[in-house]
Specification:
13% strand, binds S-adenosylmethionine, alpha/beta, 375 residues, Rossmann fold, single chain
C-alpha cells in the first residue's frame, strides 16, 4: 500500500509504522478477498445440506443461513481473523496518531488561526445521538466525536489514515473516490445542475467533500458533522489543500440552515451508520434545506444483496464489526422513506454510482449504491 497523499495535517507515518500498516492491510486483503469466498464453498458443501436434511428445504432467510453457518469452523476462523485484523489495524492507526497528537493539535491551531478560505463553527452543546454514542462504529475507540483534550484532532486524523488503510489505498491517495464518483454521477445525470450552494452531510475528515469544490469551483461548499475533532481536522486539512469549505458542527437530523438554502445536498456512507428513524429525519431535513429543483445524492456502500446467503455475508459487519445499522439499511426501503419525507415518488432515484478509483475496489459493473431525489 502506498502512503496516503500528502497535506499539512496528515500524520507522519514512519517506515516501521508503514510496514506494520501494510501487514494489516495485506491481512485484511487476505481475509476479505482470499478467504471470504471459502464461506460459500462451505455453505454449499456442508451447511446448506445439513439444513436441508433437518428441515426438508433450503434456508430462506438471513437468520436461517446464519444459524447453520455459525456452526462451521471455517466461518468461525474467518470471523475471528476478520475481527482481530480490524482491531489491530484500528490500534495501529490509533497509535500513529497518538504519538504525534500534540504536534497535530499545534498544526491545527496554526492553520485554523491563519485560515483565509473556509471557516469552522463548533457547537460544544450539541447532543450526540444514541446511534453514535452506543455503537463505537467499526470498533474505533473514542468513535468520531469524543475528545482527548482542548482543540483535539485525534478522531479526525485517525479517520483519515484509518479509512485510507481500510480501503487498502484503493479508493484514491486522498481517499476521495466517493466524492469523485458522486460528482461525476451528478454531472452525467443532472447536467443542468449548476449549484451555487452545496452541503455535505457527515463529512468526517472531509475526504469526500473536497472533490465537490473541484467539480463546482463557483459554488459555496458547506459540510457538517457531529464530531468536533473531525471538523477541526477537516477544516485544517482543506485549508492546507487550498480548498474553500465551511465546516460546522451540526446534527443532520435537525440542521440550523434556513429553508431552501442549497442547490445540492450530498452525503457519503452516512446512512449505514444511522438508525432508520434518523434516515427519515435526515431526509426530511434535506427536503427542507434544498431549493426547489435542488438535488440530493447519497453515495453508500452497496450493502444490499440478492440471496439470503449473499446478504448473510454482507451483514457480517453488523454482528462482528460494531456496525449495527449496516444490515438494517439493507432491509430498509429508502425510496419509501424519501417519499415519506416529502419527495415526489417520480423524482426519487436509485442507481449505481460508478467508482472512479483506479484500484478497482468493486467488481466490474458494480458501484457505490447511489440514491437520492430531486426536489
Ligand atoms: C462513515 S463516516 C462518513 C465518511 C465521509 N462522509 C466520507 O465519505 O469519507 C460517518 C460520519 O457521519 C457522521 N454522522 C453520523 N451521524 C450524523 C448526524 N446525524 N449528523 C451529522 N453527522 C453524522 C459521523 O460523525 C461520521 O463522521
Amino acid at each position: 500500500m502506498k502512503k496516503p497523499g500528502p497535506h499539512a495535517m496528515l500524520p507522519e507515518i514512519s517506515q516501521e509504522e508503514q510496514s506494520r500498516l501494510s501487514f494489516f492491510v495485506s491481512l485484511s486483503g487476505a481475509a476479505r478477498k482470499g478467504l471470504k469466498p471459502g464461506n460459500e464453498l462451505i455453505y454449499e458443501r456442508d451447511a446448506k445440506p445439513a439444513f436441508v436434511a433437518e428441515h426438508g428445504r433450503e434456508p430462506a432467510t438471513v437468520e436461517e443461513v446464519r444459524e447453520v453457518m455459525e456452526k462451521q469452523e471455517f466461518y468461525q476462523m474467518w470471523t475471528a481473523l476478520s475481527r482481530s485484523q480490524q482491531e489491530q489495524y484500528v490500534d495501529c492507526t490509533g497509535s500513529i496518531v497518538e504519538r504525534q497528537l500534540p504536534d497535530l493539535v499545534r498544526r491545527f491551531r496554526e492553520i485554523s488561526g491563519d485560515a483565509k478560505l473556509g471557516s469552522l463553527e463548533l457547537d460544544p452543546n450539541l447532543d450526540i445521538p444514541y446511534y453514535q454514542k452506543e455503537s463505537h462504529q467499526h470498533c474505533v475507540p473514542l468513535s468520531y466525536y469524543e475528545e482527548l483534550g482542548r482543540d483535539d484532532v485525534y478522531a479526525g486524523a485517525r479517520a483519515d489514515i484509518g479509512s485510507y488503510a481500510y480501503s487498502r489505498g484503493l479508493r484514491g491517495l486522498y481517499n476521495d473516490d466517493k466524492g469523485l464518483s458522486g460528482s461525476k454521477f451528478l454531472k452525467e445525470n443532472f447536467p443542468d445542475l449548476n449549484p451555487g450552494r452545496i452541503l455535505d452531510l457527515g463529512c468526517m475528515s472531509g475526504n469526500s467533500t473536497v472533490p465537490y469544490v473541484d467539480a463546482y469551483p463557483d459554488a459555496a461548499v458547506h459540510a457538517i458533522d457531529l464530531g468536533a475533532p473531525q471538523l477541526r481536522y477537516a477544516h485544517a486539512r482543506a485549508e492546507s489543500m487550498g480548498k474553500r469549505i465551511h465546516f460546522s458542527q451540526q446534527n443532520a437530523e435537525s440542521m440550523k440552515f434556513e429553508d431552501g438554502n442549497f442547490d445540492l445536498v450530498v452525503s457519503h456512507i452516512l446512512f449505514h451508520e444511522t438508525s432508520r428513524q434518523a434516515i427519515l429525519n435526515i431526509l426530511r431535513e434535506v427536503k427542507r434545506v434544498l431549493k426547489p429543483g435542488g438535488v440530493f445524492l447519497h453515495v453508500e456502500v452497496p450493502v444490499r444483496r440478492d440471496t439470503p446467503f449473499a446478504q448473510f455475508l454482507a451483514n457480517w459487519d453488523s454482528w462482528y464489526n460494531n456496525e449495527p445499522f449496516w444490515g438494517i439499511l439493507a432491509r430498509t426501503d429508502v425510496q419509501a422513506l424519501a417519499v415519506e419525507a416529502g419527495f415526489d415518488e417520480d423524482r426519487v432515484f436509485d442507481r449505481p454510482v460508478y467508482s472512479q478509483a483506479p484500484g478497482g475496489v468493486f467488481r466490474k459493473g458494480d458501484g457505490w449504491w447511489g440514491f437520492g431525489a430531486r426536489k
